Amino acid sequence: MRVLVTGGTGVLGRVLVQQLDGLSEVRVLSRRAPQGAGFVRGDLETGEGLADAVDGVDVIAHCASAADYWRPRRDVAQTRRLVGALGDARPHLVYVSIVGVDQASFGFLRAKLEAERVVEESGLPWTVLRATEFHDLLLMYLMRLAKGLVAVVLRGSLLQPVDVGEVAARMATLVLGPPGGRVRELGGPRVESMEDLMRAYLAAARQRRRVVTIPVPGRLGAGFGIGDHLLTDDDRGTVTFDEYLRSRVDADGLISHPYTP
Ligand SMILES: NC(=O)c1ccc[n+]([C@@H]2O[C@H](COP(=O)([O-])OP(=O)(O)OC[C@H]3O[C@@H](n4cnc5c(N)ncnc54)[C@H](OP(=O)(O)O)[C@@H]3O)[C@@H](O)[C@H]2O)c1
């Protein structure tokens, strides 16, 4: 089976590529210079290289995202461009989305829902997996929010972070299996307040900072409080944020996340 992983250099995509290694012939689409066999240079924003990237593949795991919160619809256009590059070919398209996109309180999630629709209405065999926020992404935000004199979190916000290895494992199963349409959502084992998650980070990083909660007004704040971004299916991973944090502490006691600045 020939599989194209878009976003195969990203946080999720990298792990997925490792997990598919040996089980399928993997090709990675990236804007960067090829980093080995199987890398195809291409850009979903311009369409450059896409025809070569999709040529002859049986499955596409679409993990690329512009992650552009100011212009969120770039992901919609890029997904459309990917589908457009296929011509008459009909590979199985597996897309990873975000839990709660249909309750979307801000533009990035609304665009993600729109990108799901592009996949569903593509005429291709398709599968969409929605996952909650990855531990890695949460850590990145907590580190940013703890940079000042005090650590700031959203009051009343509930989160259910999931381990990216477990999302990649589910993606790999979906890639190797038949098209499943909208499959069960995947999230982490625990629902925790952002305040508790921040305290866990500060303890792991051995930082003594006061945690200050700020209210988030309107629909966005209400959404986080009432759990718009928590699992609706009860399909939970096993790795907790605490366990993940321990795995990110290096020999010097420093913590890092895998996202590039
Ligand atoms: N992070 C989360 O908490 C979370 C939760 C649920 C779902 N998701 C979804 O999971 C997917 C992966 O997220 P992630 O956090 O792993 O992403 P990420 O680490 O930010 O990686 C983004 C990837 O997209 C690729 N990319 C960006 N623009 C591109 C373009 N114009 N053409 C081709 N490739 C492009 C990048 O490749 P190059 O830079 O090499 O070109 C990179 O590999 C996304 O769809 C995201 O919405 C994420």
TrEMBL record:
- Which Pfam families does the entry mention? NAD_binding_10
Q: Which residues form the NAD(P)-binding domain?
A: 7-136
Please list which residues make up the signal peptide: none
Q: Which GO terms describe its molecular function?
A: protein-containing complex binding
Ranges in coiled-coil conformation: none
What is the protein name for this chain?
NAD(P)H-binding protein
Which species is this UniProt entry from?
Nonomuraea cypriaca
